[in-house]
Amino acid sequence: MKKSLKLLFLSTAILGATSISSLAHGPHSGGISAPADNAITAAFDIIHAKITTERNTAIFHMGVSGKAGSSKPSATGQLAGSDVFSYVWPTTIDASEVGFEKGAGILSFAVTAHPDFDDTPLFDENGDGKLDNDGNIWHSHWVVLTPDDACGEGNLKVKDIPDGAKPQLPKTWPGLPILIDSPGWSPLISTDKVEVRVPFEDIGVVEAAGFDGVTAGLRVNESVHAPLLCVVNVFDVASGNLSLPGKVNQ
Length: 250
Known about the structure:
Elements: H1 5-10, E1 32-33, E2 46-54, E3 57-64, E4 83-90, E5 106-113, E6 139-147, E7 156-158, E8 180-181, E9 188-190, E10 193-199, H2 203-207, E11 210-211, E12 214-220, E13 229-237, E14 246-247
Antiparallel strand pairs: 1-2, 2-3, 3-10, 4-5, 4-12, 5-6, 6-7, 6-8, 9-10, 11-14, 12-13
């Protein structure tokens, strides 16, 4: 089930080094296709990942061989050491396009679930009138990823904000000391797919982007900062090596 995180990071430096697979699976077409793999938990076994656009909206799509969203982390009862499961689209879009500083790292769109904390303080996903108990419901983020050996040699993390620093941040930044945005776009999860419709002021920056599809587990570090959130388990990579070969609308 685990894939090499060293390979995951190192391969980001060789964009375009692999071609998009011509394999098809059911109704999924275009983008990056991959064969099903019985060694991977079916809910995270990627068979298809793509990004398309309609007017000023980008549609992030990921298909899996099993029931999408059916597997979530077990609650630990505390923030430190707790787990996050995610469907992620790493992109070549510059982080400044969504409100972070230019060149901050690998801008990635993610759909996540985590029972031990809530990082969408503006939204009441479960409709109970409380804003701080919705982490276990699948929800969306922009995150900026960078390498940090503190997460394991060659591994990635959501980029930390150093103490005292005041970086440029999106208006819907949830207040955590990492480069994360909680814009509130609800994922549509049905049978074997995850989709999110994301508005863009300049859809051209999306249409020019490269992308990949990743399913992964992240973990809150025991120190709860520096690093705060590490990628600890890569379940699957659509391209096989995170070369970001996907072309939008293709």
